[in-house]
Amino acid sequence: MDSLLFAIGVAVAVFCSGIAGLKLHDLLPEKHAPERSRDMIGAISGLLGLLLALVLGTLVGSAYGLYAQQKAEIETLSARSLQLDSALEAFGPEGQLGRDGLRKAMTQSYEKIWGRASAENDAMDVKAVVTGSKGLDRFLESLQPKTDAQKQALATANAAATQIEQTRILMNLQLASGLNWPMLAVVVCWSMLLFCGYGLVSPVNATVVASLALGAIAIASAIFLIIELTNPYVGLIRPSPGPIIETLKALGT
Predict the structure, then answer these.
(1) Tens digit of pLDDT for each residue in 95-120?
(2) Residue 144 CB: number of other CB atoms within 10 A?
C-alpha cells in the first residue's frame, strides 16, 4: 500500500509540474515567450525524455530481474526441500524428527509470507535463517548411519540441507540491498522537469491537460512497478506460492 501511495504522489507531482508549465506559458513576458525558444525547449525536453527512458527502463528491468530471481530460488528451495525429505525418509525412523521439522518450517514460512497481507520482518531476517540452519545441521550430525544405504542417504541429506541454507541466505541478502531511492528521486525530478517543458510549449486546452494526466499516470505506474518488484514479499505483486504449496502437499501437510 505504501508503494501505491508513493506512486499516486509521484503522479500528482508530475501532473502539477505540467500544469505549472502551462501557467508559465501565459505568464512569461513577450521576450521570454516559449514560442521564441521552442527549439531549445524541445531539444532539452528530448534530452530529458531520452535520459528518463534509459534510466527508468533500467530500473524496471533491474527490479524485475530481482523478482524473477526470487521466484526461481523459491522453486529451487522447494525442490531441495523435497530432496531432503526423501533422503531422511530413506535413512529410516531416525530421520522422522527431521522430516517433521522440515514440514513445520515450510508451513511457517508459507504462513509468514503468503498467509498475511504483508510478510513478517523475521521471515526476511538473515539471522533467523542462520539460526534455523544451525538447528538442522545439529540434527543431521546427530544421525549415526549403520549401513551403506544410510550413509548414502545422509550424504544426500547433507548436500540438500547445504543447498537449502545457501539459497535462503542468498534470497535474504538480495532483498537486504533494497531500493536505490536516490536514483528514484532523480527519475522523479527528471519527470517533473520534462512535463514542465511540455507544458511550456503547449496551448491550454482539455486535450493537453488530459494528455499530461495520462503521462503522469504512466510515469507513476513505472515507479509503482519498481518499488513492488524490489520488495516482492511485502506489496501487491508477489511471487506465486505455487511451488511451496505443491511441496507442502508432497510433504503430507
Answers:
(1) 999 999 899 988 988 888 887 655 55
(2) 8
